[in-house]
Amino acid sequence: MRKVRFLFTILIIIGVFWFFYGEKLKESGFQAAFSELKSDVTSLKNSPEVSSGIEKLKDGMGNLVGMVNGKLHSTSNEEQPDVNPVTKPPLATPKQAFSIHNIELGDSKTDVENQVGAPKRSSLNEYGVDWHAYHENYQNFFMVAYDEQGKVAGLYTNQDLISSKQGLKLGTAKDTVLSQLGNPLTKIQKGFVFYQMDNDEYHTFHIDHSYVTVFYDKHEDNTVTALQIISDKLEAKKKDFFGNPSSELKEGFEYQLFDLTNASRVNHHLGVLSWNDAIRETARHHSTDMAVHNYFNHTDLEGKSPFDRMAADAITFKMAGENLAAGQQSSIFAHEGLMNSLGHRENKLRPEYQELGVGVDFNSESRPYFTENYVME
Fold first, then answer.
1. From CA 223, how far away is CA 220, in angstroms rounded?
2. Which one GO biological process term can you cite for this protein (predicted)?
3. Where are the domains of the chain?
């Protein structure tokens, strides 16, 4: 590894030297070219503009070398992700419009868990019930919400577990979805307020006494990338557009966003990330700061970057990145939106990253702020 870094640095130095002094070298030889280089350095070294430029160049070179080191370090992670393949269940045509992992609304929790085992995590969602996450090292990942009778009232997946009467599934084109399901909802009523639903990244349909939201991947030719199904009764429990803020919902959104990210990484043949509590605290503090002071920026009001904040909290890293989202009604909508934003998507799917901490908080109007901090140690 050290030899590779050394050779990489030497090649850059040679390339820069040849760009500026190649002609002199060809005309008059090495000694003349070196003399010209020495003269240039002597005349420029006291220039403040040059000094500033050199510092910026050093910073840029450091970042570039860090990225190359990360790529070299992570090659095995990218080519050999730390997951063993798990067989996808054969998907049957459902009785309802849609099923996920052959599970439909109204199925019992007992039947679900006889089929797939116990959940890997249960965490509160915006509907006031838990999302129960089922998967095998984030393969065959889906989430289920149950009502008071232990019946399935909500379903979600971002993996190839979708089946429908119309033949719609993961990877189906948006135009095909619309031709099969018709016009999507343009608004939803909560109390005396109508909330507009005008977003080309997803469509919500009212089908079989349920709200079916189909998410599309802009970077995969606007094809189906995820599906959420919420029963009428469960949707009616949520009186406002946002859920009721609480410490439990804050933590629920954080863990859900972490799980959704890992499920997406597995979809792209990448290793899963580890949860980091210390990074979560840094991320949560930034979400709180944005919520309290009503701003939305990677740079906080004290001028600190994400890297400054992590360093101040004694978090060490070779590479790091941050994703922000705000105003989405849940971790699911936040995640799907981030996956459709190229820079945020690149953070979620960067092979070099090893750990993730997610921090969430709410402003006085219950609007959630999401911060994801990624690191490679």
1. 6
2. proteolysis
3. 1-73, 98-237, 247-376
